[in-house]
Design goal:
By secondary structure, the protein is an alpha/beta fold. It has helices at residues 2-18, 43-58, 74-84, 97-101, 115-119, 153-159, 168-180, 202-210, 218-223, 231-245, 259-264, 278-285, 321-330, 334-342, 357-367, 383-397, 403-415; strands at 31-37, 62-68, 90-94, 140-141, 145-152, 184-187, 268-274, 289-292, 303-307, 310-314, 372-374. The strands form 2 sheets. Strands 5, 6, 7, 8, 9 and 11 form a 6-stranded mixed beta sheet that branches. Strands 2-1-3-10-4 form a 5-stranded mixed beta sheet. Helix 6 crosses helix 7 (168-180).
């Protein structure tokens, strides 16, 4: 609560001191913009609240109604609302094929938001038709996100783990030491960005794919050049399943809901999560937390998932498109970047900075250590495949399904897709 009040106070002081406010012209008539999201209690939810509050402060005639929808059927609710055209003006939308899959009820932002504002944003190609930014995006990104690992420095030191593991074998060895020291080495559960009853598997699956291929190679899972039940995937997911059988994880990976609390509380040494929880970790653990690239490969991985993974999209049936467009344009300003950084996120605006040291560590993987930037795997795969993976991949790790059986199911889901969804071009 204190952080929110300080943010509002700082904004008010800045506007009074400069006399220029946020440089957004107020609408002539009172307008309420409805925003749907499935962000729960994450930092991104705090960001949406802070951005809308700041905008209303500068534009009193524009207010916002924020509706927090359940994560597990969020997109189904959006589709249902689109049929009756009684949904939101703006909706939290994932980039990549998620956005293109639902573009029938989304408004392309080209011509709605100025070219100059769009030019300030990164990753717009990932929500544009054929992944080409020239075609115009459907999503205004909120922030730059990472799928990433976090580890407890004190736990590593106590357990005698001198370096962060960089391969499967190094990870197994570190797990043995951490378990002997009394820690859950790597904790899983559906806490953090809760998107369903099971843990979200695509953080892990992204790094399994990175361990096998180049960025362009991710397209091979989409096109079928790399089948889900290929020898390479059988090997990788067999080693993934071994995390639990070798004692690297908690025993209740399929039912645990307080995994974030276990990591913050010092019970667990590692967690695979994302930047939406960085501030939560640094607030609680201070300098004792750091980021690492999940080492799901036989050789050290030189890639990192760095991506504008979500943002706000405008519905094409919204009756408040003019006002909503102005708010989306505000999201590209320096003022918005300061707000995003203030709640612990990494602004997606070109040239902006982050003050959170762990977030900066993530940025440095690519900026200073020459790691290759990869998109989030679930954002560039077919929706049916992602939905199937949400259940099958956790079952593989949880020991409920053998890797060979689970991957065969994934391959069957892919083969059942229409031919147009299995080609060399993204559709």
């Amino acid at each position: 609560m204190r952080r929110k009040s300080l943010l509002a106070g700082a904004l008010a002081f800045a506007m009074a001191a400069t006399g220029v406010g946020l440089n957004i012209q107020a609408a002539n008539a009172a307008t309420t913009i409805t925003i749907w999201h499935n962000l729960g209690t994450t930092q991104n939810a705090e960001a949406v609240k802070a951005l809308t509050s700041a905008y209303t402060m500068a534009n009193p005639s524009v207010t916002f109604k924020l509706v927090d929808q359940p994560g597990d059927n969020y997109f189904a609710l959006l589709q249902s609302a689109a049929i009756s055209k009684k949904g939101p003006d703006l909706a939290l939308m994932w980039t990549g094929l998620f956005a293109l899959q639902y573009k029938s009820y989304l408004q392309n932002l080209k011509g709605k938001v100025s070219d100059a504002a769009l030019a300030r944003e990164g990753s717009l190609s990932w929500s544009s038709p054929n992944f080409d930014a020239k075609n115009g995006p459907y999503v205004m990104p909120l922030d730059r996100q990472f799928y990433i690992g976090f580890y407890n420095k004190a736990a590593f030191k106590k357990a005698g783990v001198a370096t962060v593991p960089g391969t499967w074998d190094e990870l197994y060895a570190a797990c043995g030491k951490l378990k002997s020291a009394g820690y859950t080495p790597l904790v899983y559960g559906n806490g953090g960005q809760s998107l369903g009853a099971l843990y979200y598997p695509w953080y892990d699956a992204s790094y399994i794919a990175i361990g096998q291929s180049s960025v362009s190679g991710l397209r091979d899972l989409y096109s079928g050049k790399n089948q889900w039940d290929s020898k390479a995937n059988l090997d990788s997911y067999g080693k993934y399943a071994a995390l639990k059988s070798k004692g690297c994880t908690n025993t209740d990976v399929l039912t645990k809901t307080n995994n974030v609390e276990d990591f913050i509380g010092g019970k667990a040494a590692m967690i695979i999560d994302g930047t939406w929880d960085t501030q939560k970790f640094t607030d609680a653990m201070k300098t004792n937390v750091a980021a690492f690239v999940p080492p799901f490969s036989d050789k050290p991985i030189k890639g990192v998932v760095e991506f504008a993974g979500q943002g706000l999209a405008m519905t094409n049936y919204s009756k408040n498109q003019a006002a909503a467009s102005k708010f989306l344009e505000f999201m590209t300003t320096d003022e918005a970047a300061k707000i995003l950084d203030g709640v612990g996120l990494i602004p997606n605006i070109a040239g902006s900075k982050t003050t959170n040291p762990v977030n900066q560590q993530m940025l440095d993987f690519a900026a200073k250590q020459s790691f290759v930037r990869y998109p989030m795997l679930d954002n560039v795969l077919q929706g049916d495949v992602v939905d199937a993976g949400n259940k099958i991949i956790p079952a593989i790790l949880g020991g409920k399904t053998k890797a060979a059986d689970g991957l065969k199911q994934m391959a069957q889901v892919w083969k059942a897709l229409p031919a147009a969804k299995r080609g060399a071009s993204y559709n």
